[in-house]
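User: structure tokens for RND family efflux system, outer membrane channel protein, TolC family, please.
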Amino acid sequence: MIKKSIFLLSAFVAINANALNIDSAINLALQNNNELKQKVYEYDEAKENIELNKSSFKPKLDLAYTYTDRSKVASGLKRDSSASAVVSYNLFNGFSDYNLVQSAKYSANATNLNLYAFKQDLVYNAKVAYINFLDKRKNQKTYEVAYSLFSKQYEDSKNRYEQGLIAKNELLDVQVKMLDAKQNLTRANSDLQIAKYELSNILGGIDLEKESIEELNEKKITFQEYKLEFLENRSEIKALKMSIDSLNSQLNSTKGEFLPSIDASLSYNKYGDGPTAKDVEPDDQKVAQVSLKWNLYNGGSKYSKMDINRLKVRQVKEQLEKTKLDIKLQYQIAKTDFEVSTENFESAKLALEQAKENYKIVSDKFDEGLVKSTDLTDANYLLTNAKQKYYKAYYDKFLSLAKLDRVFEKGI
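Assistant: Done. Predicted tokens:
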């Protein structure tokens, strides 16, 4: 019994090994998407930029060696080779280095927040591509059934025409509608393939030909889960605020250039013996040095850099206000789409039930010779249209939910 259970479990796993649902599609997108990998590298670069600016707080060590070979030697010439080791350290530079490190940290945080926002976009786009594929697949099935019904109706009408029961124009009308349904089916097949390619692309180019893509189950969605005050925590807004802090730190760094800088150095010099070396020259020498430098004027470049930073801050502040308005608009659109899709789905569900009942009644009457073939054609068109509207409304509910999740960053 145990062995049998293990076998059944193994068989179940084997059958579902290639099943793809919307959650696994999202995970694949987060793992394989090339643009996301690029964004991760950008964040790594921003973190490394912090370490780059921190290097200003560390001492510097320089080694140097010179050697000169002369064809003629003048009397009293200094030694012709020397080696030196110099340790230098900046003691003060107006806090410019400190502010550059702070700027790099703010910039890295902004990059990380933008990375998170991109992940939310990626999740949303993966959901849209997945839902769009399911919609196109249902659309293809709808046209397939419609074409099958028209083909059956055409065969029936052809037999009736040969028996003299209907006029030729009725047969031709059914044939035209059948050919039109065939064209719709061909187009639906093409749309389905394109939707599959788009889904594959966002998942990192995986092959979906052997994948079983699972259907979505209807959910009961309550709008109370979404609160408007959460929009202030959107990562795009926080990223722009971090960018403003980064620019202000750059501005403070530029202000530090108006202050003096103080450097200290310690060097050890070793002199070689040249052919005309004098005994008064030392063999080696230790030098300690403290230097102060203060730039009083450099053509106004510092003022220009400060003005540029201030203008950049103003630009980002305007971008921040626009982003807040855009996010509120996203919320209003998503909220409206949710309400409309929910209402449309209920209407489409009822319309589909009525279209199915209507087609059954007309089909039965057609079999009994009580209605014309055009009546059955109209019933088929009505049923096909009702199916399309039903599935569109069905998937629009999921799309509106995905949009709301994106607005409130609930995708991850």
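User: Anything notable?

Assistant: Residues 1-17 have pLDDT under 50 and may be disordered.
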